[in-house]
Specification:
19 strands; 19-stranded antiparallel sheet
């Protein structure tokens, strides 16, 4: 945590924390990248080709994010909904300073032009009582959360989505709603620390790009490449926790046996298998885990693990382009679902339901799914968090609304203390 506090002096920061989960194919316990030597940001137009060029030319560690709206580069789609956050569609940077934590070991990678700063940096980090270099303050409890879609309107929209399903336009779609606060200031670091303490997920993220922040307690991996192996771990299926152990065990068991939740998960597994097959070597797509229930501090989640192998000549950005946006946040069939989502949702998703991660110099990568996250534009004093659930033929609008509130609880608690 001292590392993260120290990082607040920089304008480009990516912190990725596994919170000591060792069951999620993790490479490191935590990673910190700060201070751009080079950077690249763009809107969706031709974004993946430009990212390919940047990644190939840099041939180094690069960190950043892919917003959901890069879908418009891949397919003939649009994003016309309200955007209070104004994040660029894509942002990556080549860090001057890089830290990897694994067990009790800290590994540092400093570019040559700043390597003489390592000793003084370590001295500052290990000094007792490192102060928070954070120019933002939390303004008491005066954050008033508003709903972009009110409850009755939510029910109407879910019923519209169910009409699409009954007509055969889609089998499933992830429908999201935004909660937001205007003219509100927070301390990004304090807010992230509180959110992470509540949830302790395996893909927690603190991201700063100038005046824009992502404070994420996401439990979901989007996609990882390690050598020729590709791993995707979609989450579909959520149940609340209970403080009573026997009731908690029952909730977990009921989730694992829930026909609706399992069918949601299996549909997305099929979609991920199809996406991975576009770059996979023949016959290499395998489901390593199907509908396994994992327990987190806030919720139980049903997670599947789908893997494939790729040829060494396949460009890493092509693997992302052919699987993006992730199936768990779209639906099936994917393009039809994304069109319907755009029509029924009220907010441009932006970085929410996009991905944060990195590429290595060897062309490997690891990206999470941006859910259970607070997004903040400090200049606009605009705070936002969105939650969604998968709508299928068996969906009950009231239960879907309840599921959204369960997912939103940690963010709301943190913001309203």
């Amino acid at each position: 945590m001292e590392l993260l506090k120290w990082s607040q002096q920089f304008e480009e920061v990516v912190w990725l924390d596994s919170n000591d989960y060792d069951t999620f194919y993790t490479s490191y316990d935590a990673v910190l990248a700060v201070e751009a030597l080079t950077m690249f940001q763009t809107d969706y137009y031709d974004a993946f080709n430009q990212l390919k060029e940047y990644q190939s030319a840099t041939n180094d560690w690069i960190f950043g994010y892919l917003s959901y709206d890069l879908k418009n580069d891949i397919e003939d789609l649009k994003s016309d909904n309200y955007d209070g956050l104004q994040f660029p569609d894509l942002f990556f940077f080549q860090p001057k300073k890089l830290f990897f934590l694994k067990g009790n070991t800290l590994e540092t990678h400093y570019l040559n032009l700043v390597e003489d700063e390592l000793e003084s940096d370590l001295k500052v980090m290990t000094a007792p009582n490192i102060t928070l270099k954070d120019e933002h303050t939390t303004e008491g409890n005066n954050i008033k959360i508003k709903l972009r879609i009110h409850k009755d309107e939510y029910f109407e929209k879910v019923n519209e989505m169910l009409d699409h399903i009954h007509r055969g336009d889609i089998y499933e779609a992830n429908f999201c709603q935004e909660f937001y606060a205007e003219n509100s200031k927070i301390s990004p670091l304090e807010t992230y620390i509180r959110l992470n303490e509540i949830s302790k997920p395996p893909f927690a993220t603190f991201l700063r790009v100038y005046d824009k922040y992502l404070l994420s307690a996401t439990p979901e991996r989007y996609i990882k490449k390690e050598g020729p192996k590709i791993t995707s771990q979609p989450i579909k299926g959520t149940a609340k926790r209970s403080v009573d152990k026997s009731e908690d065990d029952l909730l977990k068991k009921l989730l694992s046996e829930d026909i609706k939740e399992r069918s949601e998960n299996v549909m997305i597994v099929d979609l991920v298998r199809n996406d991975l097959s576009k770059t996979a070597t023949k016959g290499s797509v395998k489901v390593e885990e199907l509908c396994k229930v994992y327990t987190f501090d806030q919720v139980h989640q049903m997670i599947s693990t789908v893997c494939s192998k790729v040829d060494k000549h396949t460009h890493p950005v092509d693997i992302i382009k052919t699987t993006f946006p992730m199936g768990s946040m779209t639906g099936a069939p994917k393009i039809s679902a994304m069109n319907i989502i755009e029509d029924l949702e009220e907010t441009k998703r932006g970085l929410y339901s996009g991905a944060v991660g990195y590429f290595t110099p060897e062309g490997d990568f690891d990206f999470n799914v941006v859910i259970r996250s607070i997004l903040y534009n400090a200049t606009n004093a605009y705070i936002s968090y969105s939650v969604g659930s998968a709508i299928t033929a068996k969906s009950n609008p009231f239960k879907e609304y309840e599921e959204c509130l369960v997912k939103a609880k940690a963010m709301r608690d943190v913001l309203e203390h």
